[in-house]
Structure formats: C-alpha cells, structure tokens
Specification:
Elements (H helix, E strand, L loop, with lengths): L2 H13 L5 H8 L29 H4 L6 H13 L3 H14 L3 H9 L2 H7 L6 H14 L3 H7 L3 H10 L5 H13 L13 H10 L2 H15 L5 H6 L16 H20 L1 H5 L8 H6 L4 H12 L3 H13 L1
Helix pairs in contact: 1-4, 1-5, 4-5, 5-8, 8-11, 10-11, 11-13, 12-13, 13-15, 15-19, 18-19
Length: 319
C-alpha cells in the first residue's frame, strides 16, 4: 500500500469511515476530551505501566490492539494532512495507544515522537494540546524521554505563553512533571523556573497544583536547590501559606519548603557562602522578614489538619 493510500486509509480510520465500531468509538470517543493522560497526577516512574490507563470498555481497550501497521498509518496521516480536526483525532488515538508500554516503543521506532513533536508548533490550540498529551503518555518510557528532551525548551515556551489556565498550559505542565520525575533533564528547564513561580502566583487551582508537582520534582534534587532559591519571586507567593489555602496546595507547598530545608542542611557550607538577592525565594523564606515564620506558627497552632501540622512541625525544627 503506497504512502497516499495509507494516509487515506488512516483518515478513514480517524473519521470512522468504513472502520469497525470499536475503532470508531476509540477515535471519536464517547465524550469530548475522553483521551487519557497517563501522568495527570504526576504519574508513575518512567517505563512503568499506567494503572490509570483506559480500561472501561472493550472499545477503549482496543487502543492496545492497534498494531505497528495501524500506528504507522496514523503517523503518516499526521505528516500528510494540515486538517486540524483530523490531526486532533489522530493524536487522540496515538495518545491513547501510548498509554500501553508496548506501543510506546513502536511509536518511537516509527519516528512518531518527531512527528508529534513537530506539531507543538501547530497554531491550533486543540492540536497543540493533544500533541502535548500524546507526548505525556509517551514520556512514561525512559528511551522516549531521551528523544522528548529536545523539545523541553519549546514545551516550556508553549506552557508559559499559552493563555492562563488553558488546556494547553495544563497539558504542558503535566508533560514537564513527567520529564522532571528523574534528575536527568531538570537542568533543561532552569531558565523557566521564574515563569513557573509566576504561574504558581496567578494560576487557578489546577494550574497551581500541577506547577507545584514540577517544582516538587526539582526540590527533591539537591543540585537544583540554588537555582530555586535564587529565582526572583512575587512577595504575594507567601499567601500560599495562608490557613484557608486549599489543603492539596498547602501540603505541596509545605513539602516543597521541607525539601529545600533538607537540601540546605545537607550543604550548609555551600549555601552560607552564597549571596541571595532581595526578592529571591531565599529572601522570602529565610530573610529578615518574619512573615513566613508567623504564617508557619499560625498553621501549627490553628490549622485543623494533622498532616499540615506535621509538615509544619518538620519545617520549624530545621529553621
């Protein structure tokens, strides 16, 4: 079957024309936006099967049954069409297929990562979002991460420049979360740390939580501590320690703080010799102002959640 004929076949699959019922439902979905994101909540370690992969019905399960020939035709279709609707549906199918580890290798070997990565430049926000979601599922594979790393600067740029609280922004943060689970590529987003803190200040609850997942990954790596403490941040960031802050956000902020404390304690001599500017995260958390300490003490005495109190107590014993 020639390239053009293969692309036409794949378009028929994506649009449901002449395809089996299950494949039709796989591509179009029972509902809009049904595609999976293997690491929406931070995800398991790269290379592990995703327990949240779609398995609700036979049609969704059939995404694991798309063989190399079918996947190749879908990748060919993405290269040969500029139709945003076809691109979007093909990316959904590839993204769902990529939730299964066997397909992650097949798609990489078919140069699918390159094809999907090129679609990060697509001007259509829905195509861009689906490309990020597909790469997110594909990034659950260590070999795939080695190829996806070349797109990290672009992923950061698209995440920061997209409309605040948009689906594209959230998809970008999810992918950055997966790509920073290990220490291997964290240094590649060093220039975007300041922008991440801006999102943490102004984003909605979902954006704040996903941004914190990225920052938590960074804070778990002692080698990134100076980069984090040196970044210039808004003073309003301290409001994340308010008593009425959503628990899911507050616990992550406190864990982030505790990680930094541990890293500083382990490398005390190194940080004692380093000068941090006014307005830096170090100045906000450890500077002359007593606001941070007062907020922590208020949480320790007045917050009604034991998990919060436990994390605050750990921070105060180190300060």
């Amino acid at each position: 079957m020639g390239r053009a004929r293969g692309a036409a076949w794949a378009a028929g699959l994506v649009l449901g024309a002449g395809a089996g019922y299950c494949i039709y439902r796989l591509v179009w979905g029972r509902e809009e936006g049904r595609e999976t994101s293997a690491a929406a909540s931070g995800g398991p370690a790269p290379g592990l099967p995703d327990s949240s992969s779609p398995a609700e019905n036979d049609c969704t399960k059939s995404s694991s049954l798309l063989d190399a020939q079918h996947l190749k035709k879908l990748i060919c279709l993405l290269e040969s069409t500029e139709d945003p609707l076809i691109r979007e549906r093909a990316l959904i199918t590839l993204g769902n297929s990529a939730a299964f580890s066997i397909n992650q290798d097949i798609i990489r070997n078919l140069d699918g990562l390159l094809v999907i990565g090129n679609l990060l430049k697509d001007p259509n926000p829905k195509v861009k979002e689906k490309a990020l979601n597909s790469l997110n599922n594909l990034s659950m594979n260590i070999e795939n991460q080695r190829e996806i790393k070349v797109y990290i600067n672009q992923i950061c740029e698209e995440t920061i420049s997209s409309p605040l609280n948009s689906d594209v922004q959230l998809a970008g943060l999810r992918l950055l979360t997966n790509m920073t689970v290990t220490n291997d590529y964290q240094h590649l987003i060093a220039n975007s740390i300041s922008d991440l803190f801006d999102l943490l200040s102004v984003g909605n609850e979902n954006i704040k939580i996903q941004t914190l997942k990225v920052l938590l990954n960074l804070s778990a790596n002692p080698a990134m501590t100076r980069e984090l403490l040196s970044v210039q941040v808004q003073s309003s960031l301290i409001s994340l320690l308010d008593e009425n802050m959503e628990k899911e956000i507050l616990l992550r902020v406190l864990t982030f703080f505790a990680n930094l404390n541990d890293n500083i304690k382990q490398n005390e001599n190194v940080f004692a010799q380093h000068q941090f500017n006014n307005g830096s995260l170090f100045s906000l958390l450890y500077g002359d102002s007593t606001e941070c300490a007062e907020k922590l003490l208020s949480l320790a005495y007045h917050h009604d959640d034991d998990d919060v109190k436990e994390k605050v107590a750990k921070i105060l014993t180190i300060l």
